[in-house]
DNA sequence: AAGTTGTTTTTTATGGATAAAGTTCATGCT
DNA sequence: AGCATGAACTTTATCCATAAAAAACAACTT
């Protein structure tokens, strides 16, 4: 059966809005709520019904207003707000990156389905989607081949990344002064400086910043294939570093400095400076990945 | 139910082998046949059973040998040797490229499933696979958006293609004399010259040659992401030109000459010459596509 | 007429079943 | 032992069913 994660997530959001006073007094119309929560009216109505049922909202002759205060256990647990497909993704990535899954292993849809507790269909859809990342390969009628999260993979990934980023950075610097990208860039620079001050506690915030920065660079002269490629990078890094926290603070600190130099270079609009800063940053990112890759292999042997 | 296209295709191949005398006299072992036909022994046995049943092969105390001559209607029709997934692909591409499917159209899995006579699952798997081509986009819980086979698409595609091909061509030219790629290149050059002589009747053969040529260029310094990207190009061009034959001979003739110039440039190992020849060829390919694209739009409005 | 809510219809996300194809195990023959 | 066939088992390709979510339709209200 289809999961009701959309409803549960919407319910939690609505509960939060109530708690934070965003829906004080009389509630807006179903259509208005629908717009705010980005779900269909059908789902909004389901949420409202439950809110009324739990007396978080009261309904009197067709008028809805806030009811009793929201308590913490009014929320559905997080796991129930994530669709199956996302769970499959998470479990697969864990299986692949944390287990001792070796290059050359063949992937069995049925086995994964059993292991993850889903139908084979879901596994297969995930694998098809995932195959674009260059880590697995389909052999018809037979199964999938895991090619390995190897150094080769990282090298090939970064070769393309450098090409794309140099191209985008140069085009970025050619934008007219009037372009809104410049103020966005300035804002990002500030955000970097801010983070630098609070680095002790908040170094995890870097990955969001990193993402925003690289996406901004592509924004100036969009190309769907470059965007798609950046999706791969984001995805891979997200999961890889989720389980590989060694030196995280150190790493991020260095990257922040590189970003700032890179931003300065962009602002200077000096083509050579841009190339140097861009290459420096990507080379360092590559080194970091490669280091963690070999380190990762060793530990996984002992695991 | 799963189609038995693997069996039928294997059967047809076996029948051809019998007809062409490749299996004269006593047949090889099941394992040997399995290897030759690239299917499992299970399938080989099924084929053999049917061959015996139709008396194309005779079996006498465990020994199999050729039977009556193969006739044309011993073969299964082609349509039955193509798996469902491939049919979906073909029908979808036709729907997209030939129908008057406009950019912005939303794609309905259920409707396509009915239209193509397959289960929704097959449609969905195809769409997921196809989404990497940058022409459609998924909106969760809602459906797919067709972004259109537009000029923007072609421009973005070719921007990447130029980057990749320049990179690969330069790396190609840096290969040592001893590398086997040089003789492959020479062979390809000859094939081009040959085709040029017989261009009148055989200009369709160009697309195979084109493919071989560009794949060879990538072969020297492989990168999976570049290969994957070239898959997109191959796929798109295959279907687009399948229904868009205007000026085909003219187009191919020009391309052959460009290829030859490009090959000469590679053999000269002169970096500048290579860049010029490569850019010239790709620019011309892009123009051809763009022209057919606008022409295509107009005709499809009238269709 | 435009915006509300109630109801019905359509479509997507997910699980399940099964024939075909692939793989492994068992047995027998040189 | 090493290869051939036979039989049993496992996995993939494919269809079908259904609850959840979205969309469309209808009736009502101000």
Q: What this model shows, in words?
A:
The structure is a homodimer of 303-residue chains. In chain A, the strands form two sheets. Chain A has a three-stranded antiparallel beta sheet with strand order 3-5-4. The first copy, chain A, has a two-stranded antiparallel ribbon with strand order 1-2. The first copy, chain A, is globular and about 70 Å long. Chain A contains 13 helices and five strands. The first copy, chain A, is mainly alpha-helical and 303 residues long. Chain A has helices at residues 5-19, 30-37, 41-53, 84-97, 109-116, 120-130, 151-173, 181-197, 199-202, 206-219, 224-242, 248-268, 271-302, and strands at 57-60, 63-66, 106-107, 136-139, 143-146. The longest helix of chain A is centred in the last third of the chain and has 32 residues, at 271-302. Residues 296-303 of chain A have low confidence and may be disordered. Helices cover 66% and strands 6% of the residues of chain A. At the A-B interface, helix 6, helix 7 and helix 11 of A face helix 6, helix 7 and helix 11 of B. The first copy, chain A, binds a DNA duplex (30 and 30 nucleotides) through residues 1-7, 29-31, 39-43, 45-46, 62, 83-85, 108-111, 118-122, 124-125, 140-143.
Quickly describe the structure.
The structure is a homodimer of 303-residue chains. Chain A has 303 residues and is mostly helical. Chain A is 66% helix and 6% strand.
């Amino acid at each position: 059966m289809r999961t009701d994660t959309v409803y549960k997530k919407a319910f939690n959001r609505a509960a939060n809005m109530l708690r934070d006073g965003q829906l004080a007094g009389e509630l807006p119309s179903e259509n208005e709520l629908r717009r705010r929560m980005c779900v269909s009216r059908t789902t909004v109505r389901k949420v409202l019904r439950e809110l009324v049922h739990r007396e978080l909202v009261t309904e009197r002759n067709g008028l809805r207003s806030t009811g009793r205060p929201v308590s913490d256990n009014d929320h559905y647990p997080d796991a129930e707000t994530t669709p199956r497909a996302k769970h499959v993704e998470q479990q697969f990535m864990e299986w692949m990156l944390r287990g001792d899954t070796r290059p050359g292993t063949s992937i069995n849809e049925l086995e994964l389905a059993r292991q993850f507790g889903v139908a084979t269909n879901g596994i297969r859809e995930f694998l098809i989607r995932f195959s674009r990342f260059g880590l697995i390969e389909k052999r018809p009628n037979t199964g999938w081949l895991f090619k390995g999260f190897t150094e080769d993979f990282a090298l090939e990934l970064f070769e393309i990344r450098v090409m794309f980023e140099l191209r985008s950075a140069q085009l970025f610097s050619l934008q007219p002064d009037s372009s809104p990208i410049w103020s966005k860039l300035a804002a990002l620079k500030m955000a970097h400086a801010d983070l630098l001050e609070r680095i002790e506690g908040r170094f995890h915030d870097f990955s969001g910043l990193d993402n925003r920065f690289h996406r901004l660079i592509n924004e100036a002269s969009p190309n769907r294939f470059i965007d798609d490629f950046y999706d791969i990078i984001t995805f891979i890094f997200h999961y890889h570093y989720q389980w590989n926290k060694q030196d995280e603070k150190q790493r991020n600190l260095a990257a922040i400095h590189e970003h700032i130099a890179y931003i300065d270079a962009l602002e200077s609009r000096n083509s050579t400076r841009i190339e140097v800063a861009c290459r420096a940053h990507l080379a360092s990112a590559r080194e970091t990945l490669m280091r963690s890759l070999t380190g990762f292999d060793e530990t996984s042997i002992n695991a």
